[in-house]
Amino acid sequence: MARLLHSATISIFVLLVVGRCSNAVLTEAEVFWRTALPDSPLPDPIVKLLHPETSSVVNKQPKDDDTVAEAYSLTWLMWGLRSPSAPTTKHSNTAAETSLVNKPKDDDTAAEAFSLTWLMWGLRSPSAPPKQPSSPSRPSRAGRDHSADEYLAKGLFFHEDLVQVGKTLTLYFPVAASAPLGLLPRRVADAIPFSASSLPATLARLGIANDSAQATAMEETLYMCELPQKAGEAAKFCATSLEALVEGSMAALGTRRIRPVTSGLPRSGAPKQPYTVRAVHPVDGASFVSCHDHDYPYTVYMCHNTPSTRAYMVELEGARSGLAVTVAAICHADTSSWNAEHVSFRILGTKPGGAPVCHYLPYGHNLWVNMEANRSSS
């Protein structure tokens, strides 16, 4: 043990010296990453979150309730749930489609990422609305219009038989999620209360108005994090620091030998269009941990393991723009526990327990792979 600690101390010292000599200031989280995952490069989305001062995208926030309503839609859908009742959206189907295709304005940066998460979880939210902090001025959740959900979902879900060279997928890539403060150092993140019951104190601490759209988004994040894991999941957790993200994924996969998989997408997003599959690379493994970054003043990842799942890295080329991207795609082979009313079944014409449901990982989301399982199966 003493030898291990001595080796780790030397490694950290060397990393710090190298960082300074190369004019790169390493954060504590980057030092942790290089020590814990020496064979895995730090994904670009995480680098941007560790240095938010260099990013214009992550420094943007939603400014009105309509923007946050679209954000709820994407987040709920990515977790495979249906949004319970976020602030009422003001646009019709046509308006929703127009605003999404033409890309959000500055105040819309975080809009889509929030509800993408719910789309990927495979359940419908409880009928009871989330518990709210004691505030009569909190924006109402009643009357949620789900018209935008289905439009966004049509650019997210697809059949597994389309994951073949030469096939065409119609996809929509949203703007990177908003996190003005980026990934906080662990000691800072751990010092901020992270629970629905402590939200009023957290809002006061961060200087966020209790009746703001950001406060409502934070409430929704906490509600999601406090939901129990669904049937078939062996693990579910929320991480508020890079260290918690990595250690939580290691614990969920039962090994320290893990590696991240992310999509190579533009942070500014891209409008919905057909993409031709140019190459497909299966990702070894049958169980993964998926982590979705969420709209919050600082980065929060919501993670869950995904058993009975196949994963691919898919190279795509846009039919209209010629945009070349590589996306991480996940295909859920067992959807028997998903709610029958989930939008993916309506879009794909399937039902719970039927054909696999596939979706890609948007910018900033990550998939964790068990390298031990891959090695033993080879």
Automatic annotation (TrEMBL):
<dbReference type="InterPro" id="IPR004873">
    <property type="entry name" value="BURP_dom"/>
</dbReference>
<keyword id="KW-0732">Signal</keyword>
<feature type="region of interest" description="Disordered">
    <location>
        <begin position="86"/>
        <end position="106"/>
    </location>
</feature>
<dbReference type="Pfam" id="PF03181">
    <property type="entry name" value="BURP"/>
</dbReference>
<feature type="region of interest" description="Disordered">
    <location>
        <begin position="125"/>
        <end position="145"/>
    </location>
</feature>
<dbReference type="InterPro" id="IPR044816">
    <property type="entry name" value="BURP"/>
</dbReference>
<feature type="compositionally biased region" description="Polar residues">
    <location>
        <begin position="86"/>
        <end position="101"/>
    </location>
</feature>
<feature type="domain" description="BURP">
    <location>
        <begin position="157"/>
        <end position="371"/>
    </location>
</feature>
<feature type="signal peptide">
    <location>
        <begin position="1"/>
        <end position="24"/>
    </location>
</feature>
<protein>
    <recommendedName>
        <fullName>BURP domain-containing protein</fullName>
    </recommendedName>
</protein>
<dbReference type="GO" id="GO:0009555">
    <property type="term" value="P:pollen development"/>
</dbReference>
